[in-house]
Amino acid sequence: MTKKILVIRSGALGDVILATGIVRELNKFQSGQYDIDVATDYPEVFKNNPYVSSVINKSSVNHSDYDQVIDLDLCYEMVPNQHVLDAYSKKVFGIANFNVGPELFADEHVSLPKIDEPYIVIHMRNHFWPSRNLPQEFWVPLISNILAKTKYTVVQIGSGNDLAFGGFGDRIINTIGKLGLHQSHALINKAQAFIGADAGALHIAACTQTPILAMYTSVRAEYREPKYRTAAHISIASDIDCYGCVEKCPTPYSTYYCARGDEECTRRFDPDSVFQKLIELVTG
Predict the structure, then answer these.
(1) Mind listing the pLDDT tens digit for each residue in 122-177?
(2) What CATH number is associated with residue 271?
(3) Could you report how far apart the first and last alpha carbons of the chain are, in Å?
(4) Which of 248, 141, 267, 219 is closest to 202 using CA atoms?
């Protein structure tokens, strides 16, 4: 009888995406002799994944059905001073700096809205963790620069709660709340660049070869930025002395609070400077 492994990572979206490389390397390590099931709240992440036998809800898990259970919930949250992928890898394989880079498998039947190319994809996060939400005062001048000084269309992606801006004419496209995970993946894959803060959309982008420009605040870039990919990315740290404050929070850091009380780190990005970084990124 084929042996069975269960990998658990309930959420959030980005954390589940980052677990996909673990599943792939487990499959290689076991030479395909084990069936690998995944328990997660985001089953779409594993759609078309050839290394997964089935995706189930954590509430329906019976551990006795498995020869091995690997629980990644709260794995990196216990060690906030290392990259998520290294935390996962150390728990499963005993070593860090092991290529467990994430991947998504394209949906051949995915449909996309008609968008004139070339375009830039932007994710303007608006989430319950406020220190990772950059304000309108940053996004509006950045988008204005892109539209005024380049030929690119701007495509806004995200969930229904994320920021969306109008009033820029027909070169800004709003797809907020309209795209599934695999549609977002396909859209970013065709873009000239992706711009966003630390969020699930950034990790979707990391599963493409599209250049990435990302801003980091309460979590340091070196612990969340794309890793084990060949495409270019630029990480920009908030210019504030308490940058990366999550390292000082009690573990596991499943909740967060700003010690300053003002989320000032989100307001320390200069849109003109970020625009120049974008130009560097897309021109090579």
Answers:
(1) 999 998 889 999 999 999 999 999 999 999 999 999 998 999 887 777 899 999 99
(2) 3.40.50.2000
(3) 52
(4) 219
